[in-house]
Design a protein that fits this description.
It is a single chain. About 45% of the residues lie in helices and about 10% in strands. It contains 4 helices and 2 strands, in the order ββαααα. It has a two-stranded antiparallel sheet with strand order 1-2. It is extended, with a radius of gyration of 15 Å.
Length: about 80
C-alpha cells in the first residue's frame, strides 16, 4: 500500500486491490500512481475536486448502488478479500 501525507495531515492511501482492474503495463501503472501522488501533493487534486451532495447523488442511483456505495464508506474493520 502506497501512502503520501501532506503537511496539514491529510493522507492519500492506495488500498490493496484498488488497481486490480487497471488494464495497462506496470510502467503505465507506476506513471499513473506517480501522477496521482503529485497532484495530491501539489494541491491540483483538491483544486480540481467537486463537493458531492450525497443526498442528491443517492436520488439518482438504484437501491443496490446506494447500498454498495454506503458499504464502501467505513468498512475499514472488515478486510477486503482480494482474488
Amino acid at each position: 500500500m502506497s501512502e503520501s501525507k501532506l503537511p496539514n495531515g491529510m493522507k492519500l492511501v492506495f488500498a490493496p486491490g484498488c488497481f486490480d482492474n487497471f488494464e495497462g503495463s506496470q510502467e503505465e501503472l507506476d506513471s499513473l500512481v506517480k501522477e496521482i501522488e503529485q497532484a495530491f501533493e501539489n494541491g491540483d487534486l483538491q483544486d480540481g475536486s467537486n463537493i458531492v451532495d450525497m443526498e442528491e447523488l443517492t436520488e439518482t442511483l438504484s437501491e443496490d448502488e446506494v447500498k454498495n456505495l454506503m458499504e464502501s464508506f467505513g468498512n475499514e474493520t472488515q478486510p477486503r478479500i482480494l482474488q
